[in-house]
Amino acid sequence: MTAAAEAPRSWGGSLGAFRHRSYTIFWFGALISSTGTWLGNLTVPYVLYQQTQSAVWVGLAAAAQFGPAFILAPLGGSLADTRDRRKLLLWTQAGLGVIALLMWAQWASGLHEPLLLILLLTCFGVLNGMNNPAWQSLVNDLVPREDVTSAVTLNSLQFNLARAIGPALGGVLLATLGATWAFFFNALSFAIVVVSLLFVRRHPSRAITRAGGRFAAQWKDALAYIGGTRAMILAIVLCCVVGVLGNPIFSLTVVFAETVFDTGPVGLGLLTAALGAGAVGYALAGAIVRSRRSLGRRAAAAMIALGLALCLIGVVPTLVLGIVAAMAVGAAFLAAFATLNTTIQLLAPDQLRGRVLAARHMVFSASIAVGVLLCGILTDVWGVQWATIAFGAALVVVALLVALLPGWRFSLLDQASASPDAPISESDSPL
Fold it and tell me: Does the keyword field hold Transport (predicted)?
């Protein structure tokens, strides 16, 4: 960390943010925390499916984890715009760590009750709804404006590195030490990120203008802005489409592993890690080669690619081919989500940033909950392959309809390119 933080000013491009000590500490802490979170995101559906043999329970777990954000994100957005974001994150991350520790205690004690695990996940979702807007906004506070693009790229990279490392580590732990140790290491990762936040400070050049007024007035301003900006409406709606139709694959890899590819925890870990590896490949390629396509064209191409990749993973017969298809899904998902999320962040004014991101997180979390639950039901009825193919085909159809819809075409997203505001983060854990 010290070497990275003391890097010479000549550093630029995608590595420029690493010359700032606070950002570097935050990045490594976030990498460890995200790795633990993805380890937990593999362990929870695995143990639930082992206990119940039902994809509906897997869907309920995702709904419990992300559903509360629909209710709590507005409060999180206002807190991010009116409070010290670092101190807010210290409290929320500590609370999330306590809940993760309770999950470990439940499993270590032998109390393998699905309903209790769902209850703990709901509490986790409540705190995460208040945590997420501040987490995203803090990235912007740790570097000067000229290094925000670098911070975006590196933040996206750490999130997707964790998506690759966490499930692979989880597969090994589940196959060797069992679920109890997987839950324990997830809880430990929160302790590490809390310690890292103690050493993080806002960059001197980043003056924070905190919002005033009452909660209702704050959100009246934010919603008036969102409702009056067609490009923002389209970007948020398309984020929801990606959440409903594209995200369920991340929770249902356990069903693919057991019912389609007939593999154990290690194969499950590799399959889930492949989703992250594909995203890492996209993030690295994006850091090296800057696309010349407009935001609208990038969003359209990414959504169609994601739909086709989902159809592909729905038809491949072997684990090896499934891993290849999962990498394609991971790359396409990040391409779609990062493009839409960056559009939202470019459009959002600085003084409304926390609340706009909270609104996006709120509806996106709700879309994840709906999508995973719906796909879980269809999986129990049709099988996971046909359910995934149906969702992929629907995603392609929606993308084609938007491309042809007068007044609401993808080109509307190009308005974000003219905004003077820089994006905060291209990565946001849907899980």
Answer: yes
Q: Which helix (H) or strand (E) holds 143?
A: none
- pLDDT at position 22 is 86
Residue 198: exposure state from Cβ atoms within 10 A (0-12, 13-18, ≥19): exposed
State pLDDT tens for residues 219-241: 788 888 888 888 888 888 898 89
**Each residue of 92-103: pLDDT tens digit?**
889 988 988 998
Structure tokens at 281: 């490949």
Greatest distance between any 2 Cα atoms in the chain: 59
Please return the burial class of 351, using the count of CB atoms within 10 Å of its CB with bins 0-12, 13-18 and 19+.
middle
3-state SS class at 326: helix
Strands (DSSP E) contained in 142-201 are none
Compute how many other C-beta atoms are within 10 angstroms of the C-beta atom of residue 220. 12
Q: For the structural domain made of 2-8+15-201+212-418, what CATH number should be given? A: 1.20.1250.20
CA dist 21 and 153 (Å) reads 17
Closest among 189, 214, 200 to 24, alpha carbons compared: 200
Q: How far is CA 319 from the centre of its chain?
A: 25
Quote the pTM value: 0.69
Q: What are phi and psi of 56, to 5 degrees?
A: -65, -40
User: Is 401 buried (19+), middle (13-18) or exposed (0-12) by CB count in 10 A?
Assistant: exposed
Q: Read off the tokens for 3.
A: 């070497």
Query: CB of 311 within 8 A of CB of 389?
Result: yes
What tokens were used for 365? 């979390």
> How far apart are the C-alpha atoms of 215 and 83, rounded to whole Å?
13
Map out the domains of the chain as residue ranges. Answer: 2-8+15-201+212-418
* C-beta of residue 355 within 8 angstroms of C-beta of residue 344: no
Q: What's the distance, Cα to Cα, between the start and end of the chain in Å? A: 27
Cα distances from 66 to residues 22, 59, 354, in angstroms, run 29, 11, 18
Place of tokens 């679920």: 179
Our measurement of the distance from residue 363's CA atom to the centroid of its chain's CA atoms, rounded to an integer in Å, reads 13
In the block, which residue shows the tokens 């101190």?
87
